[in-house]
Amino acid sequence: MKFLNLIVIVLALICHGVESLKLQANVGELFTYKIEPQLFNWTHQVISQQFRYRPSLKSYPDLPSWMRYMYSHEYHAGFLYGTPPESAAGKDLSLDVVALNRQNYETRHVVISMFVAYKFPTPNVVQMKINNLNWVHLMDPGRVENLRNIFRNDLWQNSREDLSVVFMESAVNMGGRLPLRPQQREGVIVHVGSFAQFSPRLMELQEEVRPLYKLPSCTYKRTSVQKIFENAGFKLDWCAFRMVGIESPTEILYHSGKQNEQQMAEDQRHQDRWMGISKEEVPERNYIDEFAFAFAIPGVIFAILIGMLSAVLCFQHEKFYDPHSEFFFANIFHICEESCAPSASSDSSSDDGSESSSESDYHMSSTVQMVQCSDSKSNQPITTLKSLKDPNFLLDNTSLRSQSPNNSFYQLDCANSSIYARPKPPPYKGGTLGRNGVDI
Predict the structure, then answer these.
(1) Which pLDDT band, with edges at 50, 70 and 90, does 228 fall under?
(2) What is the DSSP letter of 439?
């Protein structure tokens, strides 16, 4: 018996603090709810960042696809907001909200029950972007009422009975950029809709701002209804002002109902169930293909370039051949041979034999030089062979004698005759020297 009483006490302690709350949302209409410490029977203390909240769909790790949760450091509270699609009509939802007291780490749990009522979606919608507000500012019912009064009293009087806020989201979450200064507002995108037809004044306003549609942002532009919005505390970006309806052209921005339609189709396909992907569906990265593209393709291109360069050099090599230069270098040694050749007047057979032998020796070895000597008595040339490697080539056991100054050649005694080891210099041709010492 005591054991049963203990179980009852434990269950009572577990269930203590768990409360149930009933809410209602309409299809095609913005739903908002503020989560505060009073919801968990906590008194708001001095520490502003004391409480944190985590809402989720019951038995699921996340919220429904059409609902979002954001925490506001300005209001120190959490907010649930979203627009239910037609696929969620007539369904009951249960949300688990877990709160954490960061001061003493106490946790409490609240279950929020919600019923989504069916409502015909509004066919005529006005889309706008408010630059001087954040998303959390439109959670204030007073600001929302001021915005609705602008349309119900001045711009769209036929929508007085059923005008409602259809969509609301932060401009940053919809792809906008954060402001340069943190003190500036991020901006909020708002859609208001009604079953009434657009008024002539709204049609004129749309034609007035139509030339601005090609610009991404135009906060500097003023319109004929600028004062009406500014007096209520709203500064609009007129480049984002659109009218979407049955009778108006379908000029829909990226933040229009297209995303809601995609979400509705996705919810209808998955039947509001969260389904994770399997391990086999996770894409894998193939590094072999990447290395092949990174090295193989540049290598093939490099090989092709090398082949083209080699082919060009090989085919163009024949053009580098100069027959005149080859002929000159092939016959350069024949010049000395011709200068040392005997004269035509030599008709001695012995001399012919010695000359032929000397010529053959000259061709066989480049270190042998043929020198012609003349006899002073018989006045007949005598041909001898002298080695260039011999240090006594010029001396030949004789003394070097010099001739007269008018014939300054090295002269050698060869069988009581003279040897001229080098030819005579060219004759001097007189000339005049220029200013720079150049012979003219």
Answers:
(1) very high
(2) B
Give which of 156, 218, 248 is closest to 193, Cα–Cα. Answer: 156
CA 104/CA 102 separation, integer angstroms: 6
Asked if 48 contacts 30 with a C-beta cutoff of 8 angstroms, the reply is no
H or E element that contains 201: helix 200-209
Rounded to whole angstroms, how far apart are CA atoms 81 and 67? 6
Q: What gap in Å lies between CA 385 and CA 361, rounded to an integer?
A: 9
Q: What is the mean pLDDT of the chain?
A: 74
Please report, as a single letter, which amino acid is at residue 339: S
> Residue 236: is its pLDDT beyond 60?
yes
Other C-beta atoms lying within 10 Å of the C-beta of residue 247: 10
Note the pTM of the prediction, 2 decimals.
0.53
For the record, the structure tokens of 183 come out as 């003190």
Residue 80: which of 111, 118, 34 has the closest Cα?
Answer: 34
What is the secondary structure of 202-242 as a DSSP string?
HHHHHHHHGGGTTSS--TT---TTHHHHHHTT--B-GGG-E
- List the beta bridge partners of residue 264: none
Q: How far is CA 210 from CA 4, 240, 251, in A?
A: 75, 10, 10
Q: What are the CA-CA distances from residue 262 to residues 85, 256, 272, 299 (Å)?
A: 10, 11, 13, 47
